Amino acid sequence: MTARILDGAELARRCNDALAVRVSALAVPPSLAVVLVGADPASQIYVRNKARVAEKLGFRHQQITLPADTGELELIAAVDALNADRSVDAILVQLPLPRHLDANRVIDRIDPAKDADGCTPASVGLLHLGRPDLVACTPAGCLRLLEDAGVPLTGRDAVVVGRSNIVGRPVARLLELANCSVDHCHSRTRDLAGHVRRAEIVIAAVGVPELIRGDWLADGAVVIDVGINRGLDGKLKGDVAFAEAVPRVSMITPVPGGVGPMTIAMLMENTFRAASRRR
Ligand code: NDP
Question: Is the pTM of this model over 0.70?
Answer without folding.
Answer: yes
